[in-house]
Specification:
The protein folds into two domains: 38-130 and 259-326, D-Maltodextrin-Binding Protein, domain 2 (3-Layer(aba) Sandwich); 131-257, D-Maltodextrin-Binding Protein, domain 2, CATH 3.40.190. Helices cover 46% and strands 18% of the residues. It is built from eleven helices and ten strands. Helix 6 links the parallel strand 5 (160-163) and strand 6 (186-189). The radius of gyration is 23 Å and the shape is globular.
Length: 331
């Protein structure tokens, strides 16, 4: 009995030593994060709103993290290609994705995804939300929302609208518009807002429910005419301040905004997520970032990972109901 009892102090000392070694082995690694360049995957082509926001965030985050933040464009499949690349990345905090509303909608419009929506991602931060803007060329015959509704009803499927891909905010905004106005307008998907806007400017498509971040500079320069914003209230951005909402333009109950948020792979250590959130929050709340994006309608959020995760779950439920009611597909 004496031998058994005397073993406890020795066992306790041994366990304490093991724990001390474990702490010494892991704490410096987390404290030193990051030790190499980071990457933000943009699931669209260069030139769109998501690309602009990601590059602006990357520059500012790199200043706080002390490492370069590289932007990698991986467009296609309505953001699924880029999102899947993140899901298959090492959960070490060195790879992120700038997600959009498509992230919350894809499970509803695709029968099968190459990743698990519920278990493949760790939320980092909701950067912000912004309106989409219904835009046409300056020489377009459409001067209002009701002009488009009248033309679409007179000639079903004659008009077309561009988007940066199936399941994106521009696609969903257009489909919701069709559903609530009982019109038929052809959807033309692209691999990003850049090429979609190029074809709109070139006359290949009639209109686009573009993100404010992507369309803002074209509206300001007079190369595009803004007819309405998709949010419930008018945008506070100077370039959009006089633009009415689609709801007040004769389409009651119409609301469809866009958002941008950072995800890491599931399994990323909590201290690393916290470090990334702090860097992203500092970047998003900086005067430099606000000057770049708020003029185009982005309302900064910059909350906690938990708040972002809860927000995305709510978006999944909301758009699942819209997709079902409007019979929206990935085509």
């Amino acid at each position: 009995m004496q031998t058994f009892r005397s073993a406890f102090p020795r066992l306790g000392a041994f366990l304490a030593a093991v724990l001390a070694v474990a702490v010494v082995a892991t704490t410096p690694a987390l404290a030193a994060f990051p030790e190499k360049p980071l990457k933000i995957i943009v699931p669209f082509s260069p030139g769109g709103g998501t690309d602009l926001i990601s590059r602006s965030m990357g520059i500012l985050m790199s200043q706080d993290l002390g490492q370069p933040v590289i932007i990698e464009n991986k467009p296609g499949a309505g953001t699924i290609i880029g999102t899947d690349a993140l899901a298959k990345s090492a959960p070490d905090g060195y790879t992120l994705v700038m997600a959009t509303i498509a992230h919350a909608v894809n499970p509803s419009i695709h029968a099968k995804l190459p990743y698990s929506q519920d278990s493949s991602f760790a939320p980092v931060m909701l950067v912000g939300r912004s309106p989409n803007v219904l835009v046409v060329r300056p020489d377009s015959p459409f001067k209002s929302v009701q002009d488009i509704v009248a033309a679409a009803k007179a000639k079903p499927d004659k008009l077309s609208f561009a988007s940066q891909g199936a399941g994106t905010s521009a696609h969903l905004a257009g489909e919701l518009f069709k559903f609530l106005t009982h019109t038929s307008i052809t959807h033309i998907p692209y691999k990003g807002a850049g090429p979609a806007l190029t074809d709109l400017l070139g006359g290949q498509v009639d209109m686009m429910f573009a993100t404010a971040s992507a369309a803002g500079p074209f509206i300001e320069s007079g190369r595009l005419r803004a007819l309405a914003v998709t949010t419930a209230q008018r945008s506070p951005a100077a370039v959009l301040a006089k633009v009415p909402t689609i709801a007040e333009s004769g389409v009651p109950d119409y609301v469809a905004d866009s958002w941008y948020g950072l995800f890491a792979p599931a399994g990323t250590p909590a201290p690393v997520i916290a470090r990334l959130n702090a860097a992203a929050k500092k970047a998003a709340q900086s005067d430099e970032f606000r000057k770049k994006v708020e003029s185009e309608g982005l309302v900064i959020s910059a909350g906690t990972p938990e708040e972002f995760g809860k927000y995305v779950k709510g978006e999944e439920v909301r758009w699942r109901n819209v997709v079902k009611s409007a019979n929206i597909t990935a085509d």
